[in-house]
Every structure is written in C-alpha cells, then in structure tokens.
TrEMBL record:
The lineage of its organism: Bacteria, Bacillati, Actinomycetota, Actinomycetes, Mycobacteriales. GO terms for molecular function: oxidoreductase activity. Belongs to the short-chain dehydrogenases/reductases (SDR) family. Keywords: Oxidoreductase. Residues 7-198 form the Ketoreductase domain. This is NADP-dependent 3-hydroxy acid dehydrogenase YdfG. InterPro entries: KR_dom, NAD(P)-bd_dom_sf, Sc_DH/Rdtase_CS, SDR_fam. CDD domains: SDR_c.
Amino acid sequence: MKDFRDRVVSVTGGGSGIGRAVAIRLAGDGARLAIADIDAERAQETATVCNSLGAECRPYELDVANRHAFQDYRNRVLADFGSISMVVNNAGVALGADVVDMEWIDFEWLMGINFWGVVNGTKLFLPDLIDSGDGHVVNVSSVFGLMAIPSQSAYNASKFAVRGFTEALRQEMRINRLPVGVTCVHPGGVRTNIVRDARGVGTMGDQKKIVAGFDRIALTTPDGAADSIIKGVRRNKPRVLIGPDALGFDVITRAVGPRYQDLNAPLARLGFAIGRRYGLVNYNI
C-alpha cells in the first residue's frame, strides 16, 4: 500500500503512544480513521487531533480481548465508513512477574489483549481487507517477541505468539495470491504509557522510579515509531524493527541462537543488582 489517501484504517490502542502517533501520521496522509481504545476519553482525544488535521476520524470504545465486542466494532466501522483497507493491531499491556509468582488472572488478562486482541482484529477484518483489493495488516509484537527476558514470561509468550501468527498469515496471503500485505512490528523501548499501565510493577519496587527509569532508557519516541511503521507498510516489509535496541536484539538472536539465554542470565543478575542499589527493584533473581 503506497498511498493512504481516502483509505479507511482501524487503529487499536489508538488513544495513546504508538497507536496515537500512527493515527496522527495517517491523518496527515489523508486516511480516514477508526480509533479504538478501551479508554474512550483517550480515543476521543486522538480523534480530535486527527479531525483538526482535516481527516475524517471516529473514536470507538473497545476491549480488544472481547471477541463479540470486536465483532460489533467491525460492523460499526463498516457501517460508518463503508470499507476498510488497513488494520493496525497495536493495543497491548505489560506484566512483570516471575512464572512462579504470576497470578493466573493476570496472565489471562495479558494474553487476552496482546494475543487475542491481535487475532480478533486480524481475523474479523481479513475478509474485508481481501475484498478491498489492496489491504494491509500491521500487527505489533515487540523486541520481546525476538528474545525472552526474565520476569517477562507472559509478555514474551504473547509477543512471540503475535510474531508466529503474523508470519504465518503473510505466507498464507502470498501462497493464495490474496491482495493483503502483512507486517509484523517489533518496537524496542518506546516512551509510551505501557509501563505506567502495567500490572506487577508495584511489586518490583517504587513504581514512579521504575516508570522514570524506563522513560530514561527508552530510545524511541512514538512519532519515530510511527514513521518506521508507515515506511514499512509502504515498502510491504515483512518485519519492522524499531529503535537501535530492536536491531541489537535481532543481531544477538541471529548470531548466537538459543545460547542468548545463557548469556542473559549473568546480565540479568547484574541488572537486578543495579536496580536494587537504586531502589528500582526489591527482589533477587
């Protein structure tokens, strides 16, 4: 997809962060936008900005984990806009906990949003994207869909799942010669609300310090991430790596394969020791 003018695009998690930045970038390119977010107020704020740029944009309140709600959302988007050309399945949440300590309900909450939200957004809209004659699916994974990290097992599971699902989908579209491009996005640290809204952060230490620390080490802005995603769609790239940290994760896993796990362990211990020293975490690894 080279031109977004008058194309209808759905963006989940569009109320903030990468989703909002992508929506604003597409509004500037003349797209018509459906902004979905579980926080209706945030979705409205994004829609207001996009409308101020001259774009047709509508906000929707949506829990992406709820398949029936997502079906209703799909129906409303088609009723409001008449068609759909691209979906950006961006909504995501975080959870910090070791496997032994993790609550089942938190694990299910994260998988419902991070994985099933992507599946719902892809599968429900896919026939419409095919009918458009020039559709595109953008599914947002993570650098943690390239490499596993201690205390991030649930997040890793969801983002590895998104990666596998999306890569298989791209092959299916190509094998069957269907007119839908597919791109999997792997952001590194991006200065968004994901850590502020995460579960389990409070058990790891002072939440304000952890959030401030994340903001300091996050190497990419949402606007920078949005630019990379849009460029990737224009070029129909199968994978978009966002930020130098994402490039580093990719290089490491390619170079050493599964041995990165053995290399990670002492580095993780060092990181947690430093975190305890500065009050960012309060438990041992």
